[in-house]
Amino acid sequence: MANEQIFVGLEIGTTKISVIVAEARADDQISILGVGETPSRGVRKGEIVDMETVTECVREAILDAEDKTNVEIGNVWVAITGSHLASFNNRGSLALPGERQIEPEDLEAVEVNAKEVAIPTPNTFLHTILQAYHVDGNQNVIDPLKSEGALLEADFHIVHGIKTRIHNTLRCIESLKIGIEDVVLSSLASAQVVLSQDQKNYGALMIDIGGGTTDYLVYIDGAIRHSGVLALGGDHITNDISVGLRLPIARAELLKIEEGSAADAAGSQGGIISLKNDPRFLGCDVDRTSLETIIHLRVKEIFELIRRDIESSGEGMLDLIRGVMITGGCSKLKGIAQVAEEIFDIPVELTRARNVSGATQIFEDPQYSTAIGLTKYARLVTKNIAPESMIDRLTQGLGNLFKKRSP
Amino acid sequence: MSTSPSRRILVGVGNAGVTVLDLLSVEYPGMTGLLAVNNDPDSLNASIVRDKIEVPEGDPGEGFRMIDEEFGRIVEGASVVILCGGLGGETGSFLLSALAIRAKSAGLTTMACVGMPFSFEGKHKKDLAVRALEKLEEICDAVVVIGNDQLSSGSPSIAAVGEAFALSDRTLLAALLALTGMLSTSGPVKITRADIHNVLGKPGTLTHFGFGKAEGSNRLHESLERALKSPLLTLPGKGSALKESSMILLLLRGAKDISFAEVQAVVGKIEQIASDSCQIKVGVRADGPIGSALELYLLASSGGTIKKPLKNSESNQTGEPSGADSANNPISRIGTMATIGTKLPQPTGEEEMPSGHSEGGKGADELFPVQTKPASKSGKKVAATSKQMQGTLALDTYQRGRFDKSEPTIVEGEDLDVPTFLRKGIKLNPPIRK
User: Fold this and answer.
1) What ipTM was predicted for this assembly?
2) pLDDT on residue B349
3) Can you list the positions of beta strands (E) in A241-307?
4) I want to staple A54 with a disulfide (CB 3.0 to 4.6 A). Which of A42, A75, A171, B224 is the partner?
């Protein structure tokens, strides 16, 4: 088993830290060898707030993965999220004097041009993802290298975030003497395994609802048109329950998982849920309708915020989305699809990693979508990279982190 | 300083007052409009404040008469005078009141930031301070009172006494910065003199004061947390003093990039602590360089009665921009004050001071005989408009819980860490305990 065929995805989530070890098969499919994981501590809303604790958790998760898969982990692909991440679309253009054939350098130059926009000083570029090339006004030229023209234009989806916060994640992993292949926007990773190429082409919105954040991504005509991170997730639902029903956080979390439903409480069966007392909690009876009201209002609000964000980021974009795919740990909440359908008014599907094989109980669980997605992303990227740039990457190490690669 | 180009003058009186101005000059070099007044030549000589008035030693009344004219000249042209010092000493107690009367009589908005002595300084000092404070409250448009005992909980050890005094000075400085900062707010989010008067112009009130400073990405929450932890914002056995306040002044001072969402988040958090009927007046001064620290000041008061009913226009809670400074003076009896002011140094028996006591070239002790309670001229309460209701559930039970330490999730100006049902005012059925 050649080592370069093994990819390791690391997601430092708010709820848990997952390490997925996967093998790329000859047919480009990803086969999962195993997962290592630990409950996450020191992460709030997808961002590291306690470096030392997080580092310890990551170490445990990696050891766990090594134990389970018998693979020695040297390098990882890391997912990144947090409300500091922002995105926009931008077009770069390049005049080609004398109308000549487009060279690979021109493609690089046009990307550099597209990045010549002001982002806040503390920020750095995370991704510059190609959407489409245009040559002399001809839209969506599939392979510009074969065309001739006087003007090359290219649209990019650009993701940027606060440098220090991205570095926090990197420092934490580096301190464990683990190499970092690349950092990848969480939603971009998830989308690799959650959305099929057809869905990307047809127009899809992927929503990954995790513990601390909700990450979403819009694909239209096969290209990313929008991405966003909301620092809201399952933790908020738990906190709402804890506040509304005056329960300890741990009890509220349990109640959410066991009895929670995001469906409109108007259709609630009503009645009372009896919570048994335990050594740390005096039992009580809670009103089911109240529980459902709390969850419904929060979930509905999250979807409304996403809808409004998409509406404001591109006119008519919402109309081009034909389906909503929901994944992430919180997608397991009952009734969540109905709420999304109500807000977006298009078909909604609960989904998880697909087109992967191996340990089924792992990829069938939507909470691993991001970590599995990382390995798929890794496969796509490394396959597309020319050998010389592979050497570049090895010699330049982290300096090359923010290089654009668009699977 | 023959004429003052500055619209507000900060006057440090006595040793404590001069120390505070020195601290201020070190922290904010180049600040103008500072004046040190003391009868201790050593203190004045050591001070780095440029403009100083030395009061001749000996009888304070006599001494004041010697500097009255010079002081009057310096404050001429200013619109606000803020006096600062410690009460309890003979100099500070007398001079603060005398200078306040002088400034008031010149038609200036007059405020004071004073420290009350520690209990261990003795009963005599305490009594003197209490009487001086009552007088100051009568005269000034606003008084911030810093109780030194409250600052250092319990009695400090002998070794820590120096630190206790230093803490007192630093707190006085912060209070002075709070007042000047609030006065310098402008634009749509500002605190007016009428607001300050409403909160701090009532005799017999307890001042509640907190401040915090922080930088970095979580500057907002850290500074607020520090401010809320201030011992002067806590009522023994009752929790946060903000609960008892009908109006809270909040000043945010810092970098240009302070956003409305951040202001909103702070206000939201204070609303959760404050009573439902409390009104929060916010002032923002965002002129610092990007990345500079955020300073957050909270001023409120509880108890006491309003000194004098304000004229309608002045009690306007919307904080309308004021016109001419003297016209904005909330004290309607300025004329009477003027008479008193000019008469003050004269040892006549004639007395028009509201408290009705003789003044003159006697010891400070005689100047502040035990007063009858300041007459509550009116039982009228400050009209407080109701703050925005956030929900039908009592919000005081809500805490940010697990999100307390994290950066708030603010989208479209709303703090989304607050449960949706609370923000939408949805009523729930409470759990039934077994």
Assistant:
1) 0.85
2) 34
3) 272-275, 284-287
4) A42
